[in-house]
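Q&A FORM
Asked by: J.P.
Topic: structure of LLM class flavin-dependent oxidoreductase

PROVIDED:
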Amino acid sequence: MTKNKFGQVPLSILDLATIREGFNEADAFENSKNLIQFAEKTGFHRYWVAEHHGIAGVASSATAVLIGYLAGHTKTIRVGSGGVMLPNHSPLIIAEQFGTLETMYPNRIDLGLGRAPGTDFKTARALRRDLHETVEAFPNSVVELSKYFSDGGNNGIIAIPGRGLHVPLYLLGSSTYSAKLAAKLGLPFAFASHFAPDELGNALELYRSRFEPSDVLAEPYAMATVNTIIADTDEEANLLATSGYLSFLNLTRGAPTPLPKPVTNMDDIWSDYEKNALKHQMKYSFIGDQQKVTADLKEFMDVNAPDELIVASNIYDPLLRQKSYQALADVWF
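REPLIED BY: S.T.
REPLY: Here is the structure written out as tokens.
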């Protein structure tokens, strides 16, 4: 795959408004603002933030509010949710929120939808939604939400703002469930291969083979998310990657923390079992110098052929994170 062929596939960013060790939420939002402004200038296609709750290192819980902040500090890049966890919300409320965003920033807002709560069970209950019912009702909630963006509303109920705006919907998933639903509804589909690698191939195959054309899409549009960390040397990139390893390790141990500073020896911290499990879960993490990451991404793109690649980079230092994205952009565009 040549540089020009990379450039034929849109490249986007996933951000969690990461709270770093030693810093606070205000710093996280400032870093996200700086990163999206860089992304817009550099040529990235879209910038998504994800809904999570009660996680010490993630500040993107009020996702629609954060999208408004980021869109307000940019002019052209698409901004959206990767995603809003629909079981946590009334579809009408989400329609009004994203209808408001679309009205403020026309033709720039995306609404990616997931069916997980984005948190633990106790916090999910505190969100005042019946978790079992709403997860099971996810397909109906998606259809209900889409109707609020139609010209006629939903059974006499209208979203203002929202009605007639046709805000684009995307289904997100880490299994084959959302792939099949996206195919059935004729919606674009984004797979979370950056933390759930095992079902990527199956999900993309099911989505493409079962896709039913809709008013939204004539052909399937598949997106995949991966992790990338690019530095001047492989050794430096591997050092930077330890922040993400520590963050994920702490989360799996049930004690999430702000994003830690990198460490020189992870083997002093994780067990062999934890190391193997985490490395497997983060299989689609491309870490190294520019040449190595380019070669690894070429293989990933050749095998999976996503219509768009979304990249997450869990790097402690915001300037080094931006440098990593710049190195990726240099070979992509």
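FOLLOW-UP: The chain has a mean pLDDT of 93.
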